[in-house]
Here is the input.
Amino acid sequence: MTQHLFDLTGKKALVTGAAVGIGRGYAAALAQAGADVAIVDLDEKTGQKTSDEIKSFGRNSLFVRCDVTKKEQVDAMIEEIVEQFGQLDIGVNNAGIGILGGDLDFSPENWNKVINVNLTGMYFCAQAEARQFVKQNPVGGKIINTASMSARICNCNASYNASKGGVVELTRMLAAEWGTYNINVNCISPSYILSPMHASTPLEVRTRIRELTPLGYVQRPEDLYGPVIFLASEASNYVTGLDLLVDGGHTLNAWLTPLQRETPPRISPEQETIQLKHDLAAMELPFDENGINESLHPEIANAFKNAFGL
Ligand SMILES: NC(=O)c1ccc[n+]([C@@H]2O[C@H](COP(=O)([O-])OP(=O)(O)OC[C@H]3O[C@@H](n4cnc5c(N)ncnc54)[C@H](O)[C@@H]3O)[C@@H](O)[C@H]2O)c1
Here is the structure.
């Protein structure tokens, strides 16, 4: 009975930003719970590989190239997926970017880029998915958006943090509006996750995150498998408008000193980087034994080096 609650056999899902990172993790989790999963991304080469991997789990999959900021591409993407799968049950809107820079001279172009992908693109996807769900009623559907702990704490800059705060409110509003169509709309807020976005982040930052996180390790895409399966499955049928924070306790306090550990964390530093290394290999990028590639996001590496005095 409880197993059935989380079973996604026969369900048809799509995940945006799914070539690598958190999106790839969501896709792998949904497929392993039984769903067929469409991989939606800008990166055609890596996205196609990820789609092939989903097939190797015994599920149906297709890759659709789509820029989520382009409404006509989003509508065409839903059409192509429904044509192939016959229906859509789960839409995971995850594509997102960050552009570093202080807010005194952050450019309007960069502001628009971040808001367009993280907020407007997410709205276009949710809208197109909901229209499809309404056509299929009374079954309805599940929408899951990726927000961030950056909706609650001030750790990046105004464009990123405001976009993520916007995702939480977008989620709540659509949940209130679309419950009438049997559509659940929820979001997941991770903390720092070792995806390619963090491939250039120095090791010292990982150490600091471990020291300031009660559960004691840096989050991996794998830590979102349970949350995404829960929100995609019947187990969450009465849950809507939720921002599910998954942060190992990182945001529970404004820590002044490193936390003392009584026992080793469940995940070792080597295990933290399993998917990061997998993703960098899929992107055909080099990396060291810690899964670091300094040239993928040098701006992030430099910002952390300055902040940490490295
Ligand atoms: N990594 C973290 O620490 C972290 C923490 C909290 C939230 N998030 C959020 O999680 C989501 C995924 O992040 P990630 O760390 O896996 O990032 P990532 O950069 O590793 O991967 C993002 C994927 O999205 C794709 N993408 C970017 N713009 C797109 C567009 N316009 N249309 C379609 N696809 C596009 C990229 O090609 C890439 O495959 C983002 O919304 C991000 O803001 C990340």
Notes: DSSP finds eleven helices and seven strands in the chain. The chain has a mean pLDDT of 97. The two ends are 53 Å apart (CA to CA).
